[in-house]
Amino acid sequence: MYGRKLDPHPITPGLSVRELVDDHFFAYNAARLREACQILARKVIQPDVTLGVTLSGALTPTGLGYSALVPLIDAGMIDWIVSTGANLYHDIHRSLGFELYNTTPNVDDIALRERHIIRIYDILFEQDVLLKSDAFLYRVFRSEEFQRKMSTAEMHYQLGKYVRAREKALGITYRSVLGAAYEAGVPIYTSSPGDSTIGMNVAALRMRGWKLEIDVEADVNETTAIVYDAKSSGGKSAVLIFGGGSPKNFILQTEPQIQEVMGIPEKGHDYFIQITDARVDTGGLSGATPSEAMTWGKVDPDQLPDTVVCYTDSTIAMPIIAAYLLETAQSRPHKRLYERRAEMVEKLHQAYLAHGPLGAQDEPLTIEDEGVTEGGPGGRPA
């Protein structure tokens, strides 16, 4: 009736992350983080669960890509990713041999600008880091394999191949998320591909006649196919959301795409865990709760007990979650979903043809069907 008894005892030297989380994260958002860690370790990191992770906010400049995400990718604990383009772009700086520095946020920004130094809150790096990273992207994207239309998963996979090769050529130990995902067959999508320096470089190249083009429809179909394949094969789908924003919506919209747009019977994601600092009462997507998402068909209503929202900084939660999972959960074989994209999309395609929404066979609607002519509604002057 009362739940878990709060039985505090002293923290001692040598405490493991597992002991800290399980035995000392008692209440409030500490308890929510404990619940998130335990659900991930005990229920999500299982062979029959497909886990998608979203990344928003400036996480990789802090070093969390290499320190937290890459070990989880290597351990088979992340199956697919939706990230802002900025997180992927800033993660390659160290792969190219550049350096980022920690400082205080209370600095003179005018002086930094005069010295051509870039600031991300309490992280500093030289502007030349951006210029040289752009030059690398500009050369890579002119390679033959990029001269066509492709999903962001394929663009990131090919880019990851080059980034990983540069890391090896430089002899550095640092590994980017792109490079690790390339090696593990983990597809990475960007929901707003034009909203980052990677997309800006693609746009600039198009103006010079190069052929790389991002296929946003393929992104929608591929991500939806990943979720449909997981569920229709008798498995489960889980989402771990760091922050909110466009990546959060993009990973969650896969279920309404299956159910509402394609008319395929489904119930929603099975596990929903979010780390956020967004308020729920502003009505923004970033702060929307699992129960609110359930009303859209994004979350299975039967699985609401296995949903958690922890209101804290992702840079606090991510290393704790990673350390907890690596200590308590078993590694899994890589699902290598990147290599199965065509197969999964075709499976989704066949299900769509078999079910289809009401009216899918109707003739296309014309403006005349609405009684609108050149003169406006009903022929009256507009």
Task: Summarize the topology.
Elements: H1 17-24, H2 28-44, E1 49-55, H3 64-74, E2 80-83, H4 85-91, E3 101-102, H5 109-114, E4 117-120, E5 123-126, H6 127-140, E6 149-150, H7 152-170, H8 177-184, E7 188-189, H9 197-207, E8 213-214, H10 216-232, E9 236-242, H11 245-252, H12 254-261, E10 271-276, H13 290-295, E11 307-311, H14 314-328, H15 341-354, E12 372-373, E13 376-377
Parallel strand pairs: 1-2, 1-9, 2-7, 6-8, 9-10, 10-11
Antiparallel strand pairs: 3-5, 4-5, 12-13
Helix pairs in contact: 2-14, 3-8, 3-14, 7-8, 10-12, 10-15
Provide the CATH top-level class.
Answer: Alpha Beta
Q: Please bin the fraction of helical residues.
A: 40-55%
Element pattern in H and E: HHEHEHEHEEHEHHEHEHEHHEHEHHEE
CATH fold group:
Deoxyhypusine Synthase
Straight-line distance between termini: 66 Å
Q: What fraction of residues sit in β-strands?
A: 5-15%
Q: Compute the gyration radius: what is it?
A: 23 Å
Q: Which spans have pLDDT < 50 for at least 5 consecutive residues?
A: 377-382
Average pLDDT number: 90
Biggest beta sheet attributes? 6 strands, parallel
What general form does the structure show?
globular
Number of domain modules: 1
Class of secondary structure makeup: alpha/beta
Query: How many strands?
Result: 13
CATH superfamily: Deoxyhypusine synthase
**Biggest sheet: strands side by side, in what order?**
7-2-1-9-10-11
Query: Please, how many helices?
Result: 15
CATH architecture type: 3-Layer(aba) Sandwich
